[in-house]
């Protein structure tokens, strides 16, 4: 592995200079906040436990702050970028700042939600500063689409980090918590201050670690069927599951029958259930005509 130059990573002046040269201003529409602190991106890479044999996929690389830090540590990095200008510029930034690693970098110019394959070897890790407005759907799409991803570390809005890592019974436990837990063991992995971004966001950020389960919860129901139960349960989270799942099951009586068969109280609420319990409910659906497939 070729050692990068000491100043290979981007600092605040580098970021602003690059942005000015490209005519780029971070946009709220795409949730763009560029990391301008080299120590922060190195900390993210350390926390992600990126190894020399890892093939890392990064979503939303922006100007390349985290990309360069990942290239220092991983075998290969593939970045997925939707922005036309940023996607066009990133390979040149990598080549200029880490010429010895440039052949280990690939760029996919696409919306991450539409990506179904990546060039080169299968990714083993996902590390990303996710745009806050699409963080959860992008994370779930990548985990579903690329089962080879073993470890994930994402930086998201602190509130989203809390929801992803929440345990049953928590006030913020909900759809993201359950669906993320279908794929992985999830935990908060640190906080990130606002001053390491340009522009500084008006919200705090958090790191979330996801280590993929060796296998999803044991169930005869499909992921889609389990997720339909989860969506229905939290669509009306103040209601008991008997009432909340009535539409999904075809009637309140059918919902109650499925809940009782699954060993779950019909008076319980979605926020108290584990992903395994949701899977059991999906198995015991009595209606074949579930409207939310």
Automatic annotation (TrEMBL):
The keyword Lyase does not apply. Keywords: Cytoplasm, Methyltransferase, RNA-binding, rRNA processing, S-adenosyl-L-methionine, Transferase. SMART domains: rADc. Its EC number is 2.1.1.182. It catalyses: adenosine(1518)/adenosine(1519) in 16S rRNA + 4 S-adenosyl-L-methionine = N(6)-dimethyladenosine(1518)/N(6)-dimethyladenosine(1519) in 16S rRNA + 4 S-adenosyl-L-homocysteine + 4 H(+). It is found in: Cytoplasm. S-adenosyl-L-methionine binds at residues 33, 35, 60, 81, 111, 129. Residues 40-214 form the Ribosomal RNA adenine methylase transferase N-terminal domain. Its main location: cytoplasm. CDD domains: AdoMet_MTases. One of its GO terms (molecular function) is 16S rRNA (adenine(1518)-N(6)/adenine(1519)-N(6))-dimethyltransferase activity. Signal peptide: none annotated. Specifically dimethylates two adjacent adenosines (A1518 and A1519) in the loop of a conserved hairpin near the 3'-end of 16S rRNA in the 30S particle. May play a critical role in biogenesis of 30S subunits. Belongs to the class I-like SAM-binding methyltransferase superfamily. rRNA adenine N(6)-methyltransferase family. RsmA subfamily. NCBIfam families: ksgA. This is Ribosomal RNA small subunit methyltransferase A.
């Amino acid at each position: 592995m070729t050692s990068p130059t000491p100043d290979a990573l981007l600092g605040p002046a580098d970021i602003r200079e690059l942005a000015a040269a490209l005519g780029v201003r971070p946009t709220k529409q795409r949730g763009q906040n560029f990391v301008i602190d080299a120590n922060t991106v190195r900390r993210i890479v350390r926390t992600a436990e990126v190894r020399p044999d890892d093939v890392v996929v990064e979503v939303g690389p922006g100007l390349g702050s985290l990309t360069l830090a990942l290239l220092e540590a991983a075998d290969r990095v593939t970045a997925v970028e939707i922005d036309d200008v940023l996607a066009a510029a990133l390979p040149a930034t990598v080549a200029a700042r880490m010429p010895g690693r440039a052949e280990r970098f690939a760029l996919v110019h696409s919306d991450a939600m539409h990506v179904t394959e990546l060039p080169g070897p299968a990714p083993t890790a996902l590390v990303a500063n996710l745009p806050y407005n699409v963080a959860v759907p992008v994370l779930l799409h990548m985990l579903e689409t690329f089962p080879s991803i073993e470890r994930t570390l994402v930086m998201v809005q602190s509130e989203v980090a809390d929801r992803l890592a929440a345990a049953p019974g928590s006030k913020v436990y909900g759809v993201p918590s359950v669906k993320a837990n279908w794929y992985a063991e999830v935990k908060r992995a640190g906080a990130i201050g606002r001053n390491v971004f340009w522009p500084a966001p008006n919200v705090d950020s958090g790191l979330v670690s996801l280590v993929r389960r060796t296998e999803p919860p044991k169930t005869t129901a499909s992921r889609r069927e389990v997720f339909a139960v989860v969506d229905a349960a939290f669509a009306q989270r103040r209601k008991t599951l008997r009432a909340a799942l009535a539409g999904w099951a075809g009637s309140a009586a059918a919902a109650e029958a499925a809940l009782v068969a699954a060993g779950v109280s019909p008076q319980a609420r979605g926020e108290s259930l584990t992903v395994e319990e949701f899977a059991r409910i999906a198995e015991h659906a009595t209606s074949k005509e579930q409207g939310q497939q």
